[in-house]
Write a structure and sequence with these properties.
It contains one helix and two strands. The chain is mainly α. The longest helix is centred in the C-terminal third of the chain and has 15 residues. The chain is elongated. The two termini are 24 Å apart. The mean pLDDT is 77.
């Protein structure tokens, strides 16, 4: 598992649309919607926490009181 890229693995649970970079010519009526996490988004830490928590619960780990 790549810890350096871990934040990029989590799915985003809200609709986030991106402003396209200058010089990019999109097709009319098309937008850019984010499917995975991106550094700098406010939602990324929570999405990562939910992903790793689900993985740990799946493999039998149990949270202690301080983890909540």
């Amino acid at each position: 598992f790549d810890i350096r890229g871990a934040f990029l693995c989590a799915d985003v649970d809200t609709d986030i649309y991106l402003k396209l970079p200058s010089g990019y010519q999109p097709q009319p009526g098309k937008t850019a919607k984010l499917k995975k996490s991106l550094y700098g988004l406010k939602q990324v830490p929570m999405a990562w926490h939910e992903l790793i928590e689900a993985w740990m619960l799946k493999y039998g780990f149990k949270p202690i009181g301080q983890d909540r």
